[in-house]
Amino acid sequence: MIRDPQDIEARSMKIIRSELKVPLPDEVMPIVMRVIHATADFSFAESMYFSPNAVRIMRDMLSRGSTIITDTNMALAGINKTAAARLGAELLCEMADEDVARTARDKGVTRASVCAARALERRGNRLLVCGNAPTFLLEIVEALKRKAHDDIAVIGVPVGFVNVVESKEALRASGLTCIASMGRRGGSNVAAAIVNALMYGIGGVRE
Amino acid sequence: MIRDPQDIEARSMKIIRSELKVPLPDEVMPIVMRVIHATADFSFAESMYFSPNAVRIMRDMLSRGSTIITDTNMALAGINKTAAARLGAELLCEMADEDVARTARDKGVTRASVCAARALERRGNRLLVCGNAPTFLLEIVEALKRKAHDDIAVIGVPVGFVNVVESKEALRASGLTCIASMGRRGGSNVAAAIVNALMYGIGGVRE
């Protein structure tokens, strides 16, 4: 049995490359490969959407210092902390915050949409990462339709059967810098894999 | 748009039920449905393995107080804390532990296999949950082949391309009380979904 983590990783990527039947631009290849690595699901090679230059823009943002804000603590847990620290990126998820729960109750909205609204009120470069809650994504798309921000990029990969497909269609149509998994599939693991793949492609950042 | 979480959940489950083409025993149905809910991937309906009475045995164990030990902090993050507290279940992941890293370096093994060995040294009811690292699963199967424990049950759903299929085949062949996703697919999200589905089926525990 192969036990060396780097060897396992290299062999995994070799298998993925050999089985990947869809031609992909060089820029997006490492992102799609890491999503397949995290899911063993090759359908992502056909379902992922990248806005123009999304990978370059997001890496540039991450390399200049940013806050990575997720809609679940699970996505946050999957992000490589060493790589984030190396980039000086702050990681944040407010879903378990008492204030967020109270505001959501008072307004009769989801906690995820309150988290998204709070993320939009912050300053500086922000990578907004949605692996679970369509309302997080929809709050962002609705707000930024009215006022575009060049310091915000979005990873939109919620998973599920209700509101999910629509939320990603809205993101794609928004013109925002984004990476999304169209259709029903996605998840916190996919979200974390995309963030990690973006970070690993920046000079000096290792897994 | 439907915004009420309980309504979204109910509609999601209705869609899953209507699209599920594989007949499944009543006992395993809620577990498989929650995995599909977490992944939008119906292939799990055909790939999941349940040892005899696995669901009943695991729920019985969880209802008597147990430690749920995961191989990733990501799986841990996805487990419903309120439900676990209600059952008096302790949640544990030692993957980021300094001691574990040191022992792994000294022995030349993976951190996951050290975590598994430490889990086996503990006492009491233990649900061992593997969503990522095949070496975590293989350590358990190897150790328990020599000495069976009736206070241990295993969820084996690592994802990936190297050692993964083999580790789950070994688990299935071990005779241990287990739930597994055969083949390459699985993940921390699948692991957490299974634990949550088990807990939600115990009287008095809610989502």
How would you portray this structure in words?
The structure is a homodimer of 207-residue chains. Chain A has 207 residues and is an alpha/beta fold. Chain A has helices at 5-19, 29-39, 44-47, 54-63, 73-78, 81-86, 98-107, 111-121, 134-146, 164-174, 188-200; strands at residues 48-50, 67-70, 90-92, 126-130, 152-156, 178-181. In chain A, helix 1 (5-19) packs across helix 2 (29-39) and helix 8 packs parallel to helix 9. The mean pLDDT of chain A is 94.
Relevant terms:
207 residues; six-stranded mixed beta sheet; 11 helices; homodimer; 53% helix; globular; alpha/beta
Chart the SSEs and their pairings.
The structure is a homodimer of 207-residue chains.
Chain A (H helix, E strand, L loop, with lengths): L4 H15 L9 H11 L4 H4 E3 L3 H10 L3 E4 L2 H6 L2 H6 L3 E3 L5 H10 L3 H11 L4 E5 L3 H13 L5 E5 L7 H11 L3 E4 L6 H13 L7
Parallel strand pairs in A: 2-3, 2-4, 4-5, 5-6
Antiparallel strand pairs in A: 1-6
Helix pairs in contact in A: 1-2, 2-11, 7-8, 8-9, 9-10
